[in-house]
Amino acid sequence: YIHAHLLRRAIPGSVTRRRPIICPQCDTFITEQMVQKRRKMHYDWIPCPVCQTKISLVTEEERATPVQVLMNTAMVTRLDRLADTQRERQRAISVIQGKRLTGDYDIFFCHNGADKPAVKQIAEALLDYKILPWLDEWELQPGQQWQPLVEAQILKSKQMAFFVGANKVGTWQRHELYTFMDLKRPVILVFLPDAPRNPDYPAFLKGSTWVDFRKRDPDPLGQLIWGITGTNPRAAK
Which of 79, 135, 207, 210 is an S-S bond match for 189, by CB 3.0 to 4.6 Å? Predict the structure, then answer.
């Protein structure tokens, strides 16, 4: 895999691959010079200089069948994708760490505490897309008065995701929403997977478009990312 990766990215002719050849009987190392001289004489084997064992000079690439070549190519492609995914994940982690250090949150999560597990799953999924939500469980240090901290964060937040699930909209949740609406900032209505068919939520949100995690199409996470960033992931593909 490393050889194939380097061949695709390095200057042509700058990468060479040398297979160490060792006698299987006496472990004698066969030098590259000996191998090259033997190949120039059109031999595909070399005798061990110590025990005279016949050692093959045929490489794995030369020995591979067309089917094996295809399988190896497919494996390299899969490994490439895994490596790209890992690099992208590491970049996302770095971006999120930077945002958290500077307090640059992308969106405030407003939800009923009883819906926390589902809301937390969505928050964790957004991190992979370099989106940092403000979630009380992640940001409120134990032992502090939480209400003034939440209100201070609302005043600093660019936008809000208002979650509606199986549990009724809570009193404090409504207070957060009304405070945010007074600031005239965007609110994204989000229905959680367990939200009822006809959920109860503030009437003034019913004229807005929403994100619906009860459905698979359109992709709700993609819709939420679109609402937060202004960029439609589907259109970017």
Answer: 210
